[in-house]
Write a structure and sequence with these properties.
Length: 439
Amino acid sequence: MVGGECSYWACIPSKALLRPGSALAHARALPGAKQAVNGSLDTAAVLAHRDEFTSHWHDDGQVEWLRSVGVELVRGHGRLAGERAVLVDGERLLTARHAVVVCTGSRPALPHVPGLAEAHPWTSRDATSSAIVPPRLAVVGGGVVAVEMAAAWRSLGSEVTLLVRGGRLLERMESFAGELVAEGLAAAGVDVRFHTEVTALHHHGPVTLTLGNDGELTADQVLYATGRAPRTDDIGLETIGLSPGNWLSVDDSCLATEVQGGWLYAVGDVNHRNLLTHQGKYQARIAGAAIAARARGEQPDAVRWSPYAASADTAGPPQVVFTEPEAAAVGRTFDQAERAGLRVRAIDHDLGQVSGAALYADGYRGRARIVLDLDRNVIVGATFVGPAVAELLHSATVAVVGEVPIDRLWHAVPAFPTISEVWLRLLESCRDERPDGAV
């Protein structure tokens, strides 16, 4: 469907499922509001709201938008058929004067576990589109999809067990992000089990999961959220000398680097740069500009700060995990920065000590960190964990991607009393590190 994974099975429906539980938790954390909150979520209303946001899994509105801007839509199974050629359903041949762009996205990657196929596990698509709340849900994984869906279905009444093979959640974020999210899930009633590997499944109405040396677990439904694979198995890559099923390597203009002639581009998940909707849209803008420029006979250099280079991909894309608490991050973690050879310092602050956070909720718990490049005096990473921190992230993204010097960032004054005032506290710590105390 026009709009792809995000519109129908990923970002949009998952956030529609998560938001009611978050709103309820926030109301219950505020004196005066909590006295007005009685009962639990109206499950039918939440699912109906989700269905509205997915347009009931119809793409008429997005098809009309395409037509309104002059784009011709051809429905069917498209396969590459040599240079600048795409064959649709084996019958209609489309040829391009300048470029073909592969935007086929990714699919869930399922491990080889005995009994998994017979258990008919949920993947991310099932978890975001189900019309039924499973009484007992086992979630296998420790990444974003796993924790968000554990939170969503727990808020709707499922008894949720989260099975994590490693020792932490959200391994690509700062470790404290996973710790606080795990605490939040446990407080909501999710049974979080670390160092737990599923070695077999047996489907007999419900599903029995064998947990290595930790016995068994019985659930009515199992969600596997264990990674993604590219949707390139059957798009004709072999006709242009590439191997089906692989990710497509690209340069900063999203031009495929393993294809001669400068005509094949790959945008979004399929190029494996950043598997995030907003980064796919960003890459599309970059690739579109580069294709147009090259069609005019120009040769745009994919250099830093060029309008034809996806430099934000390398600076560190922003990402939000919409659990309760939320986790939001951009740029490098402290460990990633050190591994990259940067001389850095991590500066932390307790978000609960900011006036805006204390007013937002009683007992507000959260943490903020910026990673400071000591040689350039700029921020190369930022992480926020706490209720409603997602809206803090864009200011951090501007600071990181724009490489705004701390001396100048000091003069971006946060409004009082907002949670954003944490920036003042973080920058005060930066100032205190300066030998002369100057800013």
